[in-house]
């Protein structure tokens, strides 16, 4: 009787390799879901966002942030480059739909009001006059923090919301730069 029960229990037990394979498949599916819908790693390839982000920084992008709300002025956003959607870029939102953007004498004006950008612009940055330009509804005006080395909305125009991937939230590499992005 015991031999029969033992044989039945052994025949129902999965081999160890099946359990490992099932665990790997479940982990891969979960990773794919998290990366596609929640959080995506992103690599900073250029100096256009210095001193906020440096080439080689690795960050986490929150894909869920703009499913529940709209990008706000000051957010750092990863998006598909509108002139070549196979490329991803990262810039700061400086104006939203309905705003008028202008740069005069090295000062950014939104709707005629000078903006305080001392928290994220490199000291001594000098950039050329631009605008005024009115941002269409449902679009955003994007600028790099390193204004002299950034191809941004001043070059390629405003960004439609459909190109936005998500909000840059955390630097996770290199270790000495770990922290939230502001």
UniProtKB/TrEMBL annotation:
GO CC entries: plasma membrane
Location, primary (coarse class): membrane
Enzyme class: hydrolase
Membrane topology: Single-pass type II membrane protein
EC number(s) per entry: 3.4.21.89
Boundaries of every Peptidase S26 domain copy: 17-173
Gene3D superfamilies (alphabetical): Umud Fragment, subunit A (2.10.109.10)
Transmembrane segments: 20-44
Record-level GO BP terms: signal peptide processing
Catalytic activity: Cleavage of hydrophobic, N-terminal signal or leader sequences from secreted and periplasmic proteins
Top-level division of the source organism's lineage: Bacteria
GO molecular-function term, one example from the UniProt record: signal peptidase activity
Subcellular location: Cell membrane; Membrane
Pfam families: Peptidase_S26 (PF10502)
List of catalytic residues: 48, 91
Keyword field contains Protease: yes
Keyword set, alphabetical order: Hydrolase, Membrane, Protease, Transmembrane, Transmembrane helix
Keyword Protease: yes
Family statement drawn from the similarity comment of this UniProt entry: Belongs to the peptidase S26 family.
Entry protein name: Signal peptidase I
């Amino acid at each position: 009787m015991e031999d029969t029960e033992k044989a039945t229990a052994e025949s129902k037990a999965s081999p160890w390799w099946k359990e490992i394979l099932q665990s790997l498949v479940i982990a891969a599916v979960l990773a794919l879901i998290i990366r596609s819908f929640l959080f995506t790693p992103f690599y900073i390839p250029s100096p256009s966002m210095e001193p906020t982000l440096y080439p080689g920084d690795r960050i986490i992008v929150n894909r869920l942030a703009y499913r529940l709300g709209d990008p706000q002025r000051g957010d750092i956003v990863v998006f598909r480059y509108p002139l070549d959607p196979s490329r991803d870029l990262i810039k700061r939102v400086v104006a939203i739909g309905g705003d008028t953007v202008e740069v005069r004498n090295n000062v950014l004006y939104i709707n005629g009001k000078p903006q305080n950008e001392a928290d994220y612009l490199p000291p001594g940055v000098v950039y050329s006059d631009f605008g005024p330009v009115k941002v269409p509804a449902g679009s955003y005006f994007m600028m790099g923090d390193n204004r002299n080395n950034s191809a941004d909305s001043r070059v390629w125009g405003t960004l439609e919301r459909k190109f936005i991937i998500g909000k840059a939230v955390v630097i996770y590499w290199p270790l000495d730069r770990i922290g939230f992005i502001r």
